[in-house]
């Protein structure tokens, strides 16, 4: 039987407590309300639970969600579902226990960054430097490992929340990414088994202050990802979590980000150097993955560093990933 597509979301109306919801398109209804209408679809599995709680026994919850979606009629959608603009859309998992981010993971992005910064062997012209960078990325994909760091959960914001910017000299930058939400715990997960641990996918944006990456007080420390990527609001997440069963091949996902209508990033996830299964394999070698954990899988070419143009108050940052929805983030000055 063909499953009817849906996503899960977390939302609230006014000042009420956020609630887990079933999202169809850009409309959402509380799971509690829907199981009162259709109790046989799995009241004990869905009622009174947050999305994070549902993820603790995802296979069990997913069956109930499938059953619920199968009986939701167009009349119920019209009568009980709210347009996204009528409610406050919260991060779909509110909040993950752990956030892992994979850096320098899109081939064209790293090649462009190499050329933009002029990093490489001396004496090479632009053509030679590009060829050197491309060969280096091919070698890294064949023999290397992902580069992973963590990000505080306090960075998470909703898909439509305003982003409060630091001073422009910190060079706040965008990084649209495919977010992977874990639905089954594990340690030392094999590459072949990795995708069975994925509950679903969501849009994330790993906002970064480029001017804070390098440590100048003690250069041997190198980079400082905590201060560069750890500020409040630096990880817009959502608007929804799309179950993995509706994404047949995550490499086919297409990412597009625009600033004030100008497209800056426009790339397929197939350009990843290390695919999602390799990232899960690597991360679980050193950390225990838990249901609800979020993996940010890297950002494609077209960051502000490439354009020498960074986020400014008044900007509208719109991020879209095929099948996962759309973010719209207004940028405002820090008071």
UniProtKB/TrEMBL annotation:
Keywords: Metal-binding. InterPro entries: FAH, Fumarylacetoacetase-like_C, Fumarylacetoacetase_C_sf. The keyword Secreted does not apply. Residues 98-326 form the Fumarylacetoacetase-like C-terminal domain. Pfam families: FAA_hydrolase. The keyword Metal-binding applies. This is 2-keto-4-pentenoate hydratase/2-oxohepta-3-ene-1,7-dioic acid hydratase in catechol pathway. GO terms for biological process: small molecule metabolic process. Coiled coil: none annotated. Belongs to the FAH family. One of its GO terms (molecular function) is metal ion binding.
């Amino acid at each position: 039987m063909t499953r009817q597509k849906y996503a899960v979301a977390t939302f609230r109306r006014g000042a009420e407590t956020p609630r887990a919801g079933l999202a169809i398109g850009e409309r959402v209804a509380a799971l509690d309300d829907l199981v009162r209408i259709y109790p046989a679809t799995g009241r004990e599995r869905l009622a009174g639970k947050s999305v994070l709680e549902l993820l603790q026994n995802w296979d069990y919850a997913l069956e109930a969600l499938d059953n619920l979606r199968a009986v939701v009629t167009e009349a119920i959608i019209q009568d009980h579902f709210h347009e996204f603009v009528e409610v406050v859309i919260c991060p779909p998992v509110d909040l993950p226990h752990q956030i892992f981010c994979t850096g320098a993971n899109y081939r064209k992005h790293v090649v462009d960054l190499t050329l933009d910064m002029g990093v490489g062997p001396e004496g090479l012209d632009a053509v030679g430097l590009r060829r050197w960078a491309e060969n280096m990325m091919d070698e890294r994909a064949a023999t290397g490992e992902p580069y992973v760091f963590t990000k505080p959960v306090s960075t998470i914001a909703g898909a439509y929340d305003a982003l409060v910017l630091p001073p422009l000299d910190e060079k706040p930058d965008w990084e649209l990414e495919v977010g992977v939400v874990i639905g089954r715990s594990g340690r030392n997960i094999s590459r072949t088994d990795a995708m069975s641990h994925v509950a679903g996918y969501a849009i994330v944006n790993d906002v970064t202050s480029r001017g804070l990456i390098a440590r100048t007080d003690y250069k041997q420390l190198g980079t400082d990802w905590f201060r560069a990527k750890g500020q409040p609001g630096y990880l817009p997440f959502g608007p929804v979590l799309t179950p993995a069963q509706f994404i047949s091949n995550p490499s086919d996902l297409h990412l597009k980000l625009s600033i004030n209508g100008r497209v800056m990033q426009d790339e397929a996830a197939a350009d990843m150097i290390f695919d999602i299964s390799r990232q899960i394999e690597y991360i679980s070698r050193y950390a225990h993955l838990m249901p609800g954990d979020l993996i940010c899988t890297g950002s494609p070419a077209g960051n502000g560093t490439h354009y020498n143009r960074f986020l400014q108050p008044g900007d509208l940052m719109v991020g879209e990933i095929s099948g996962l929805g759309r973010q719209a983030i207004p940028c405002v000055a820090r008071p």
